[in-house]
Amino acid sequence: MRALCMVLVLLFSHACARAPEAEPSELRVEHERAGAWVDKLRAAHANADTATTAEARADALHQLRTLAAQAAPASVAADDAASMRRDLYGRAARLALTLGRAPDARELIERGLSLEGRDPFHTQLLVLAVETHRALGDEAAAREAERAARAALTDR
Question: Which domain holds residue 114?
Fold first, then answer.
């Protein structure tokens, strides 16, 4: 959660520093959009943190999945947006596994891995892929995902 907060702060500050050629009112609107997006991300993570029942987890999963599928505001740097979306996909995949919905988890992981860039959230998705493939009974895919996760961890 601490890493998420740091990333959100960096994301928001980066969004606020963009588009210097825009008019002040346009900048304000873009800042507000970026801030509202960050607030939605924060609320979705908080909702997932407090979900204790299967119904609450399913609601949190839906909220995370919906946000992950949406594009970030234009003022958010593409790399930052991809990182935050990968984090959302990973969190949603973890909830799907918790709910016994491994096929959904696999789909979420694939979507997150399809986004451009490599960061700790990408590695997290690879690690989740191992668990997901095992839950699906596909040991060969689990071993392949484990090799990819190890490679991602040693590439840093």
Answer: 2-154
